[in-house]
Amino acid sequence: MKELKVGLVGLGWVAGAHIGTYKEIEGVEVVAVCEKRPTTAAELEATHGIQAKIYTDYEAMLADPELDLDIIDICTPNKFHRDQAVAAAKAGKNIFLEKPIALNYEDAKAIREAIQEAGVKACVGLECRFSKQFLLMKSVIDAGLLGDLHYGEIDYYHGIGPWYGQYEWNVKEDCGGSALLSAGCHSLDALLLAMDDEVEEVTSYGCKSTNPCFKEYEYDPTTVTILRFKSGKTGKVTASIDCMQPYYFHCHLVGSEGSMMDNKFYSAKLTGMVKERWSTLETAMVDSGDVTDHPYAPQFQAFADSIRTDTVMPLTDFDTAFETFRVVYAADLSNKLGRPVKLSELS
Ligand SMILES: NC(=O)c1ccc[n+]([C@@H]2O[C@H](COP(=O)([O-])OP(=O)(O)OC[C@H]3O[C@@H](n4cnc5c(N)ncnc54)[C@H](O)[C@@H]3O)[C@@H](O)[C@H]2O)c1
To answer: Is residue 1 very low, low, confident or very high in pLDDT (cuts 50, 70, 90)?
Structure first.
């Protein structure tokens, strides 16, 4: 089996979870890291338990012929994603790109073009698709237990205040971007996975908490987006990163034969169920904002397999993520312009 060598850029919070995950994946090793803060080999070993070549210059890491990297893992703040992803693709490297893919549609298209031209593989950090909760949700839908879905709401509530390391840059419009770009993209992505339909139009409104903890946000840290799908289905996504409550990934799907709410469900397809009572499906819920709890392992394994077998990875390949972010950009535009936005406006 070919050893896949990873060069990681941005040695912060999420990078720690990535490095921990690579250790669980056979035949994949982080051999280089690029971090703008001064970092020593001793620190890297003590904090992350790895020995890797350390760079402060990203281009130098990409170009180092001795490394011959297979994967560039981009874990920097959002505003660096475009240039770093384009440079990685141009250097012929496969890419793990943390979400959001880019801060705007033009930048996302530039990354897509660079990936297509280079013929490299790319995976996006929308790892919730690999969670047991959402794999189960998808199997319930695919088994026909909910019938035809006509409505879905999947919402993201996670207060990202000064207690988070990323707060300093996440509050900036030119880096965090929006409530959806910052974090709510996970719930919008899950809704698209569930509804399995093209979005035609979105309407989004935003607002902000009066709690001083969140005053630094330069954009609306709470948004609600209504989605109209081509087939007539409707959906709703709330993204709230200025809430004061435990992390909650709310999920409610409504279909012609049943409904699913988080891990509870009712299905008229199953004889003997009682419509007045929910039944519970036991699974591991997406109930933590801590990146060490996120399902990166099955995602990284699927990405490594796709590189080795030269196939498109399931669930979080770049093109699938691109469609999710196209809807995010349309929603953010709707909130900015104060009117519904058709997806066809983003060509
Ligand atoms: N998929 C998820 O669930 C998830 C969770 C958390 C974070 N993220 C994403 O991961 C990325 C990083 O977030 P974080 O919370 O780890 O941030 P962080 O601030 O903890 O880490 C970012 C690191 O990048 C370094 N850095 C900044 N600019 C750099 C540059 N030009 N070159 C090299 N290093 C540079 C910083 O010094 C810092 O160490 C963001 O895009 C975020 O959206 C995704």
So the answer is: confident
Contact 192, 327 (CB under 8 A): yes
How many whole angstroms from 284 Cα to the centroid of ligand 1?
26
Residues with CB under 6 A from ligand 1: 9-15, 34-37, 58, 75-78, 80, 98-99, 125, 127, 165-166, 291, 294
Closest-CA residue, ligand 1 atom 1, reads 125
> In this structure, which CATH number among 3.30.230.10, 3.40.640.10, 3.40.50.720, 3.30.360.10 belongs to the domain 128-289+324-345?
3.30.360.10
**Residue 70 Cα distances to 17, 30, 122, 186, 319, angstroms:** 20, 10, 11, 27, 20
Could you tell me the fold of the domain covering 4-127+296-316? Answer: Rossmann fold (3.40.50)
Q: What is the reported pTM?
A: 0.98
